Fold this protein.
Amino acid sequence: MLKKKFFTELKKRLLISQITNDKKVEDILNNKFISVYCGFDPTADSLHVGHILPLLFLKRLQLKGHKPIILIGGSTSLIGDPSFKLKERKFFSLNSTSTWIKKIINQISLFLDFTKKYNQPIILNNSSWFKELNIISFLRNVGKHFSISKMINKESVKNRINRNKQGISFTEFSYSLLQAYDFSHLYKKYQVILQIGGSDQWGNITSGISLTNYLYKSEVFGLTLPLLTQSSGQKFGKSELKTIWLDPEKTTPYEFYQFWVNTTDKDLYNYLKYFTFLSLKKIKKMKKNDQLNKTFIKSKEILAKYLTCLVHGNKNYFFSKKVSNIFFKKKLDGLILKDFKKLIKYKAPYLVLEKREYSLQEVLYLTKLATSYRHAKDLIFSNSITINYKKQNNINYVFLNIDKLFKKYTIICRGKKKYFLLKWK
């Protein structure tokens, strides 16, 4: 049986950004069992951390008895959503997206329970209905319900139209119609009455609500989650140099773990509300204790542990934690040869180097701790680089034999947290 306070808890966790009918959605979520959908366009071969929030939101709904429907945008991904994009997305081939879809479905399965019978999630691909559509029928039956003036005035479109150099193509402009049709189709065939998505999807969601009302004279609803940014202002899911992917081949479990354990103090407690199932009372108590003790590391570790175990499993969390413990000793005392072998075993970031002379600038570039030789030079000059925990500010520095611990390993670090292991042949 559903709890009456479920919707209230969602709001207290700050998980609701926009909603079409607050009171009706509250009543539905608290007192009925419904089908809810969220769409994911396969525009890469992996989801990233920005996708975790909607997946966990669906998990919360499933735990309360609602039925999650995952819609993979096999067709819409070939068009590209223009919402708040500075320029048109690159077009992908059908073969590419087909391969990517399989990987993404495997990642989605980590978040939802597919063993339940009464509210088992369904994964659909919108190419299954769009490939059957006749373009003339689509324009007559769907296009006629859309006002160009209203579409132009949506924020997601307006921002692009006003850019003289980029503009917006008709292809992108039509995306909203396709997503709107998704909602109406899912309502008709699967009785879906609620769509969720990031706050950048609000315009597309409301278009689907309007179309469903036009076609079937039925009321459906939309709800958006906060579009997360870090306190630095960066879009959530991006680090300083790269996206944090769920695929361990693209972002290692150690890098994934480090992303979360390095959450800023300011973001920490909201992230605990968003991404864990800890009670609000527990999170409040953790915050009070952290502020009293003036340390936040235990709470950050709880966040990192939960998400790393969820996405990469307990074993990879254990490995990531061990790597951190070795790197963050910040001293060589006590480190033995076995520790360095463990770093590689536990998938620490490492680079194998040939038997030749390497400059520090070159190594920083090869390890991607620097984006260019110029960047590497600036990092060295600004005292941001350590070799075996010792500062090195000589921009012309070349690695020596004394830098090779046990004649084979070197630990370099950028700043206080970006560690890398060098293994010499």
In short: Residues 8 and 51 are 23 Å apart (CA to CA). The chain has a mean pLDDT of 90. The first helix runs from residue 6 to 12.
